[in-house]
Amino acid sequence: MNTRPHIVIFNPDQWRGEALAHMENPAAVTPNLDRMVRTDAVSFRWAFCQNPVCTPSRCSFMTGWYPHVRGHRTMFHMLRRDEPVLLKTLRDAGYFVWWGGKNDLVPGQLSWEPFCDVYHQPERPPRSMWEMANAERWRGEPGSDTFFSFYVGKLDTGGEETYYDGDWANVLGAVELLNDRPTDKPLCIYLPLTYPHPPYAVEEPWYSMIDRNKVPARTPAPEGWRGKPALLKGIWEGQNLQSWGEERWRELRATYYGMCARVDHQFGLVVEALKKAGIYDDTAIFFFADHGDFTGDYGLVEKTQNTFEDVLTRVPFLVKPPAWVDTAPRISDALVELIDLPATIEAMTGIEPGYTHFGRSLVPVLEGRTDQHRDAVFCEGGRLHGEKHCMEAESDQNPRGLYYPRLRLQVEEGPEHSKAVMCRTKDHKYVRRLYESDELYDLGRDPCEINNVVDEPEYADVLARLKDRLLTFYLETGDVVPHDPDRRSFHP
Whole-prediction pTM value? Predict the structure, then answer.
């Protein structure tokens, strides 16, 4: 390798891992991502985040640390001054770092300056996302079965070609940068977009692009919620969507897939700009989401803080290396985690991180030398009783707020917001919980995670094995020792 690659980190929010056409989803419309997997990239079928909500997940994949390493478990505990951030590492190594999109990473009291050269501010002010200014119209009255549904539907562009919101502003800003880029440094473009985060809303042509008849069937709400975490039942009751029929659910899910199709189109615009600039072959592209979304599964919408269903924890993860990596384009069945992002970039750039993290380079998998990357993946969330600073009481506690069905439970000391951790292999998923029952699922027999078999004798050996693996996980990742030893004093 004679030079460092340019880097594009394209990071949509809340995109489910199955919402890709090349993952055999008949309703998904993702031609740009599909084409890249056929020609230049590896798409990981079994990629998992380390926390099912935005900020903790981003803190994890930007450091290579699991959430427990430094207590990043809430939306209000971001990366502090003394903690590593991949963007800062790249900038310190000589990259020109351009950041266009949402934060959920750096505390509001800190400056952007250490982390990027440019934090994009579009000249033209974008519109409110999802017609939030008209929320009363699409939400309906309090107590209705639409009030907490997050469902908007088709966006009105007001006669413009697109609904010009923050995502469009930042994608077009990245394209503009590539049309007139600095040439004295390698580039890092970070695009943390907001779509397909609910509310579920998208403009034409993407709204009508999804064939409603091809939308996959939902996973139903478990009968009586037996063996499931209390938070799920509490949100299910609060969102009040039990009266929805399958036609309404299909429409909501199709709108979500339309949001994904729009993001795929925007991704294609950035890829074309890279090619036009003549640097596509010299660029490493990473496409992944911070976590998934219920989108009607289990009768729920949006996400939770401490449950680990695959629809929340499994995410798309595509990597197109620079041309000098001898890539074997395909769908890989390797188990991977988002914390593998920093290690993979370090392997491609030769940058030494200067601190201990727990990611593993994906380069051997990209080259087709192996699909045996990890034997298990992990995800964490929730809080201890008494951790009032982890209740997220800073969030809007208004009963009219969109997130109230979840937030009202997080500020109580019941079992709903209990601290929990997932250990998932290819075949089984174990969740250890404080204050309520553990969970164990046989993913071969029960891929939708409906039947909790943690107390069934025939699974005793599986349970023991996963508990032991979880203990090893915590032993391996329980702390990080600074790389600069202190001087010992021998004064008498």
Answer: 0.97
